[in-house]
Amino acid sequence: xxxxxxxxxxxxxxxxxxxxxxxxxxxxxxxxxxxxxxxxxxxxxxxxxxxxxxxxxxxxxxxxxxxxxxxxxxxxxxxxxxxxxxxxxxxxxxxxxxxxxxxxxxxxxxxxxxxxxxxxxxxxxxxxxxxxxxx
Length: 135
Description:
Structural class: alpha+beta
């Protein structure tokens, strides 16, 4: 290996390390998760100022959560790319219960369907959705 080859190899290595640092710094490739109930409430409040979440059903994996406020209104928060997106859960949202899983299909097709593994609480939240649909 010549000196020229070593310089080229070192330059390539520096460039790869710089790109890796830049990707990490920009948050690209991140795997956003909702850490806990407080995080879900904060995300709902960021989506709608003053939402005031009081109860949370967080997906076991942390990719999505349903946040309910004191007035009984609900908001779905989900990972969306490197960030989070939130939408209100209202009568236009279709909910499907399957044992420990609750799937919410939003009327906005680009938001897509979200399946939350809620364990034994899935039925409770499905019932709350029926209340929203009929209320």
